[in-house]
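During the practical work, I selected for study one protein's amino acid sequence and its C-alpha cells, as given directly below:
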Amino acid sequence: MSENKSAKISAWNPVNTDRFLVGAPHYPEHVDESYWERDAERMAKAGFNIVRMAEFAWHILEPELGRFDFELFDRAIAILGSHGIDTIMCTPTATPPRWLTVAHPEILRVDGKGRPMSHGSRQHCDTASPVFREHSRRITKAMAEHYRDNPRVVGWQTDNELNTSMPESFSKATLSEFQLFLAGKYSTIDRLNHAWGGDFWATAYQSFDQVVLPIEFGPTFPSPGHVQDYHRFLAFSTARFQHDQVEILRAVNPSWFVFHNLGGLRDIDFRGQFTTDLDFVGYDIYPMLYDEFQRIGNHAKVQALHLDICRGFSGNYIVPEQQSSFGSQPGFCTLTPEPGEMRRMAMSSVARGADGLMFFRWRPAHFGAEIYWMGIIDHDDVPRHRYDEAKRFATEMKALQDKILGTYVRMDVGIAGSDFDNQEAHKTYPIGLPSPQDDAVLLHQYCYDRGIACGFIHPEDDLSKLKLLYVPHWVMWKGEWTERLKSFAEAGGTVVFAARTGTRDENNHVIRQTAPGTSLAKLTGVRVEDFGRLSAPGAMGLFEVMERSGGLVVPPNRPAESHRRERRFKIGNRELTAGYFYENLIVDDDVEVIAVWSNRYAEGRPMATSRKVGEGRVVYLGTYLTPDLTEALSERLFGDARIEPLIADLPEGVEVTMRMNEDRRLLFIQNYLDKPARISHVPAGINLLDAGKEVDGALALEGYGCAVVQLS
C-alpha cells in the first residue's frame, strides 16, 4: 500500500493502494501458542494477506512503567509472515494498564454526575489529559521504534474506535484543557460571552478560568453556544490525541500507512485534522447491531446508510471490522447472518467504497466481555461455513482488485452531510425535531429501494458529478456554500433546501435577518414569514391520546384535525399531510410555487417553490420530509434532473450500486434475501463473479447471491 496523503478531502477519493487488504483482527494473546501455526496456515489457505493486532495489549507490551516486552507479538508476527501474511499494529491506548491508573487516577474520565470511570473496561481514560497523552506518546514511540525495520509490519491503526464508548468527560483535566481551548479560540472573555449569550440568565464570565463544563440539567439547560463549543473541544481533543501518535509513527517510518477504525461517529470532525492526518479512514460495520434496523426495516438498508454516510466524510475507506457472525456484550447482542449472508454483507461494503476489509474476528475469545462475539473460526477451533465464505470472498477480491481499486462510488443524488457543526448544532437544541441525518434517511431509503445512485457529500466537495443535491435543514450556513451551490445549479444541477436552513450563525445564535438569511433568500427567492411545530406523521395529539384512554369526551362531529392542528398541502394532484414543522413563505416574482398549504389559516400560501438558476433550479421546502412528500417531490424533480435507476424495475430485496472511474463501470448487484431473485433490464456487460459470463437483460441470483457486472 502506498501513501495517500492529500490536503483535499473528497467523497470521490479512492484509497491509494495496489492491493485489496483482506483478513481479520487477530488476538494471539487470547489462545495458547500451540494454535498460532495452525491459525496462520488456515488464514493463508483462505487467501488472507493481512491481520490487525495488539490494540488491547498495553499490559503485555509494557507490564510495568518503562519495561517493554514485545516477544509475544514478535513471535506471532514472524509465524504469520512465514505464511505470507502481513500485520497492522495498533497503538493500545484504548485500554491502559492498571498500573497506570493506580499511579495516575487523574487520567480517568469523569461522567456528568461526577463519577470517575473504572479500570476493568475500555476507553476509561481521558484523551484530553496531558498525563495520559504523555503515556500514550511513550508507548507509541516504543512500539514504533521496535517495529521500525520489521518488513512484516506494514501499517498502523491508532487506538481503537475512538469516542465509541464515551466521548464526553467532565474531569479536572478536561475542564482545564477546555478553558485553554476557549482562550485560544476567543482571545478575550468578552468575545466568549458574546458567543455564548452571556447576558441570558446571567451566564457571563469574568475570566476563562471561571468557565464551567456544560452539565446537563444543572438544573436546567445550558446555552447552545456553550454546548456547541464543548463538543468542538472534544473533537479538537480527539484529533490532538491521535495526532500525537501519527506524528511519532510517521517520523519513525514514513513508509507505513496509518489509519483509524471508527465504530461510532461521535465528536469527530472528519473535515479537519483527524482525517487529514491519516492515509485513509476505516469504518467498523456491524449491519445487524444498530438500532436503526428496527426503524428502517432491514439490516441491508442500514448497512448501506452507514457506509454511504461514512464515505461522504472523506471518500473510500477500509473496513477493519466487518460482522461475520453473532456478536454480543452482556447487555446486547446482534442477529446472526445466515449461510451466504456474511459474504453478501462484505460485498455490499465493497460496493459502497471499501478498498480493504477484515472480518471480525479470526476466532472468538473464551473469556471477557465478548465471549459470544463469534469469528471466522468457532470456539471449538473448527472452521465451518463462515470460513468457506471468507475464503470465497478473499479469492474474489484478489481476482478483482485491479478492477475495483482506483474507482469511486457513483452518486447522482447527493445529500449534504459530514458537517460537524451542523450535526452538533441540532443536538444543542433539538426540540423534538428530527436531526438533519434523520430527515435525510427518507430520501436515502427512497433511492435505495429504487436502485438510484445516492450518497452523502459536503457542499465544499466537488459537486460536478451530481445531478441533485438535497440540504436537510442545516441551521448553520456559510455564505461561500451558497456560491458553490449557485454554480452547481447554473451548470444544470438541482438544489433542494429543507426548512430552517441557514437560521443560525456559527455561535448558534438565531440570525437577525429574515430566514433563510440574505444569501439563501437571494438564491431561493424565498423568505419565511412565520413557522411552527407539527406532530410527527401519524402521531396522536394530546387530546386524541386522552380521548382514546377515556379521559376526554369529544363530540362526534368534531374533526380530529381541530385538536391535532394537522397541516396539509397540495403538490401536483396530491394532497398530503405535513410532519414536524411548517413555514409560511413569501416568494419573489420569478419563483414558481410547486406546493401550497391547503387547510387552516394558511390555505393557499406557498409551501414549496422552484426558481430557475442558469441551466438548473433551486427548490425550497417549507417543511420536513415525510415518505409521501419524498415520493411526490422525487417524481416531480428526478425526471427533469435526468435521474434514473441504475437498473429499472428493481425487484424487492435487491441492492444495486456502481463503482466507476474514467475507464470502467462496475455494477454491483446483491440479493439480500434468502430466496432467489431474477433481475430484468440489466445493462450489457460481463459478470466478473461468474467467470466473465455475458449479461444482457436478465440475471438470476441465488439467495444472498452477488454479481459484479463490468458494463460494456
Q: What stands out?
A: The domain at 654-711 is CATH 2.60.40.1180 (Immunoglobulin-like).
